């Protein structure tokens, strides 16, 4: 286990370093932020001064080394726009994005696993077929379009739910969250459903496939032969086997939920880091873009690690250091 | 059959699978009975419908299969007409089953104790502690050393033979009247096979449990069963007392089976092989299903032979049985 952690950390370090180079070069190629940030009436001298102030006069490799040096000390540079540390700005927005992503994941699991079970058990009936058709739809309709439609229907036409913002937040251990108040909940519902729809479809399909596969296996028949109720056979025997792949895949998908939150946050004006990213791209605020990408990559790495550990907890067969008796 | 008490009586049972490419008559009009405490051997080549017969008795036939006719009388009660809940109460309590592949029958992600205790609490309201003690005792009974530790193990930590012992222990937990053992030793290596065989035989004799032993291997039932049914393509072609059938096989198929078993008095001579292949149940030949492989087949065999009983306690499906050997 310790060897595993050390090896993982080293790999992660290399990945982060490579990513930082790629991101830096990529962002460099997008364009010159000075053109956007400085008013067109500025004199050439003011222009020069601004460039020097932002450190943009130096060659790229030198800028990178400066950045890397700062990054190793926990400083990802100051935002050109807000003139505040980029890291701080992003971390301020992180809870909102995480809350949205976990809300979406929650919806995907709480609805997806039961629906997938039903679709798997009654795969030949109309119920099973409708669930499957629904999940195909969820896969194929683009997120932004669904988001806009949801705003149209639930916010504009019916007026049931708000279309933008986070609503009232409550402090939980010093972090503002929405899901503790009714107002907050009503704000998070639409964006979370929007973001979770794709993963919901995925969960349904994974659970259905797993259910169908497991129902064929001898252990299910043996469990029935013991006289267990159908509820126990499905709810304990089958479910426990299905959860292993479902949890693994969904865990790995958490990273992509955070990444895709960019679209949903933009549509619903959700004040998370995705929205900050889009705003920053608009004004070529390089430090924010770089910091966002690096933080996202770090989260991907951490999530993968947690999922690997969780997987070994769920599946007794992959636990380490056990011998056959 | 005799003056002993009948536990299970199967009459004209038919279990068919309604597949997309046609009806598979996996079990087609079979009848037999088992007395309390007796051992019945159900023998036949792979695909002859033995497992489906076993699952029919538990109401566990997978769709698209279902029982299309006949009766399964268990202690006088017809299982075929039982409700789902009635069946569930019967399974594992009155009739238990041991499966062929011990690597597949236990749930890989649940501990042995979970899988044993639930088999008890499904039928009785008992404290977990008591159920656990009973599980441990059952493990000792089937010859598992340090049962307390094994209870905490997961299936993958046990060898195949050990897992099959666990399955047997589970089958014994509720002291059933009947155990259906579906080729329980086929997947194990030879030494463990004979150990397990011996173990089950002993336990059933001690507890008075009746046993239906399903196998494709005649030698296994020879020293075990009181009666034997020989199945071919979904039908029982010959049945009777084990010694009668093995000493004087009357049906050409049974003779073929016995001829293909290596034995002492035939050493040196080539083993007899039944010619041809097991027919597909989807397109069985008209008449006797064994017709194309049978050395005695003639035009009579173009219609399906009815069950005949030439001698007391012996049933056959054949127009030209080898009755001459009875007079040798
Ligand atoms: N789920 C199923 N669907 C379709 N046919 C089946 C199914 N299960 C069994 N059968 C058919 O029933 C026949 C008998 O199977 P089985 O009882 O398992 O044979 P045995 O146990 O004697 O080897 C097989 O030939 C197979 O074609
Ligand atoms: S009925 Fe005819 S074909 Fe069938 S086993 Fe008897 S002799 Fe052979
Ligand atoms: Mg079988």
Compact summary:
The complex is a heterodimer of chains A (325) and B (328). Chain A has 325 residues and is mostly helical.
Description:
The complex is a heterodimer of chains A (325) and B (328). With 325 residues, chain A is mainly α. Chain A has a single domain, classed as MetI-like (MetI-like fold). In chain A, 74% of the residues lie in helices and 2% in strands. Chain A has helices at 2-30, 33-37, 44-53, 60-72, 86-121, 126-140, 143-157, 182-215, 218-225, 230-267, 273-282, 286-314; strands at residues 170-172, 175-177. Chain A has a two-stranded antiparallel ribbon. In chain A, helix 7 packs across helix 8 (182-215), helix 9 (218-225) crosses helix 10 and helix 11 (273-282) packs antiparallel against helix 12. Chain A is globular. Chain B is built from 11 helices and 11 strands. Chain B is globular and about 65 Å long. The A-B interface holds A 217-219, 221-229, 232, 236-237, 240-241, 244, 314-317, 322-325 and B 55, 58, 60, 62, 88-93, 96-97, 99, 101, 104-111, 118-119, 122-123, 150, 153-154, 156-159, 162, 167, 170. The site of iron/sulfur cluster has 12 residues of chain B, from loops.
Task: Give the SSE order of chain A as H and E letters.
Answer: HHHHHHHEEHHHHH
Architecture of the largest domain in chain B, according to CATH? 3-Layer(aba) Sandwich
The side-by-side strand order for the widest beta sheet of chain B comes to: 6-7-8-3-9-10-11
Share of helix of chain A, binned: over 70%
Identify the overall geometry of chain A.
Answer: globular
Number of strands of chain B: 11
Spans of chain A with pLDDT under 50 lasting ≥5 residues? Answer: 320-325
CATH secondary-structure class of chain A: Mainly Alpha
Strand adjacency order, main sheet of chain A: 1-2
CATH superfamily of chain A: MetI-like
Helix content of chain B: 25-40%
- CATH third-level topology of the largest domain in chain B: Rossmann fold
Oligomer state of the chains in this structure = heterodimer
- Kindly state the mean pLDDT of chain B as a whole number? 87
The small-molecule ligands in this entry are: adenosine-5'-diphosphate, iron/sulfur cluster, magnesium ion
Instruction: Output the number of helix runs of chain A.
Output: 12
Structural class of chain B: alpha/beta
């Amino acid at each position: 286990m310790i060897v595993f952690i050390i090896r993982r950390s080293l790999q992660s370090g290399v990945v982060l370093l490579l990513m930082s180079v790629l991101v830096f070069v990529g962002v460099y190629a997008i364009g010159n932020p000075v053109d956007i940030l400085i008013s067109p009436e500025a004199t050439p001298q003011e222009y020069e001064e601004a460039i020097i102030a932002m450190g943009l006069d130096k060659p790229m490799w030198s800028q990178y080394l400066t950045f890397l040096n700062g990054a190793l000390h926990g400083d990802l540079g100051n935002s050109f726009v807000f003139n505040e540390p980029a890291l701080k700005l992003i971390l301020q927005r992180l809870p909102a994005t995480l809350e949205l992503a976990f809300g979406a994941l929650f919806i995907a699991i709480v609805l997806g696993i039961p629906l997938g079970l039903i679709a798997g058990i009654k795969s030949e009936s109309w119920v099973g077929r409708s669930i499957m058709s629904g999940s195909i739809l969820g896969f194929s309709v683009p997120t932004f379009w669904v988001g806009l439609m949801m705003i149209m229907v639930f916010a504009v036409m019916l007026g049931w739910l708000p279309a933008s913002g986070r609503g009232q937040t409550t402090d939980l251990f010093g972090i503002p969250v929405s899901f503790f108040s009714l107002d907050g909940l009503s704000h998070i519902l639409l964006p979370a459903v929007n973001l979770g729809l794709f993963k919901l479809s995925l969960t349904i399909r994974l659970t259905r496939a797993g259910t169908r596969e497991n129902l064929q296996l001898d252990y299910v028949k043996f469990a029935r032969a013991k006289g267990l109720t159908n509820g126990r056979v499905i709810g304990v025997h089958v479910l426990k086997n299905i959860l292993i792949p479902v949890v693994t895949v969904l865990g790995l998908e958490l990273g992509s939920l955070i990444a895709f939150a960019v679209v949903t946050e933009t549509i619903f004006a959700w004040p998370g880091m995705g929205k900050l990213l889009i705003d920053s791209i608009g004004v070529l605020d390089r430090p924010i873009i770089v910091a966002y990408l690096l933080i996202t990559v770090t989260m991907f790495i951490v999530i993968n690690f947690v999922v690997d550990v969780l997987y070994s907890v769920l599946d007794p067969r992959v636990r380490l250091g056990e011998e056959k008796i | 059959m005799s003056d002993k008490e009948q536990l299970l009586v199967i009459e004209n049972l038919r279990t068919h699978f309604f597949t997309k490419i046609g009806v598979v008559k996996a079990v087609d009009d079979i009848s037999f009975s088992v007395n309390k405490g007796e051992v019945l051997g159900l023998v036949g080549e792979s695909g002859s419908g033995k497992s489906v017969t076993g699952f029919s008795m538990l109401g566990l036939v997978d769709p698209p299969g279902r029982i299309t006719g006949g009766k399964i009388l268990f202690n006088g009660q017809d299982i075929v007409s039982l409700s789902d809940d009635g069946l569930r109460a019967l399974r594992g309590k009155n009739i238990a089953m041991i499966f062929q592949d011990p690597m597949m029958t236990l749930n890989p992600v649940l501990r042995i104790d979970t899988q044993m205790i639930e088999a008890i609490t499904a039928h009785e309201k008992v404290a977990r502690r008591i159920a656990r003690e009973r599980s441990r005792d059952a493990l000792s009974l089937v010859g598992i050393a340090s049962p307390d530790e094994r209870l905490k193990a997961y299936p993958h930590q046990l060898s195949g033979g050990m897992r099959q012992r666990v399955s047997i222990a589970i089958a014994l937990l509720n002291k059933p009247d009947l155990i259906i053992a579906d080729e329980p030793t086929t997947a194990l290596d030879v030494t463990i096979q004979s150990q397990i065989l011996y173990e089950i035989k002993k336990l059933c004799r001690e507890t008075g449990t009746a046993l239906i032993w399903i196998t494709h291997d005649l030698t296994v039932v020879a020293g075990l069963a009181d009666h034997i049914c020989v199945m071919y393509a979904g039908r029982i072609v010959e049945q009777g007392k084990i010694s009668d059938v093995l000493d004087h096989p009357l049906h050409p198929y049974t003779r073929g089976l016995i001829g293909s078993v290596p034995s002492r008095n035939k050493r040196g001579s080539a083993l007899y092989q039944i010619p041809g292949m097991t027919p597909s149940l989807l397109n069985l030949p008209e008449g006797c299903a064994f017709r194309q492989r049978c050395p005695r087949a003639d035009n009579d065999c173009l219609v399906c032979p009815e069950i005949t009983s030439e001698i007391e306690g012996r049933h056959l499906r054949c127009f030209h049985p080898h009755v001459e050997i009875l007079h040798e």
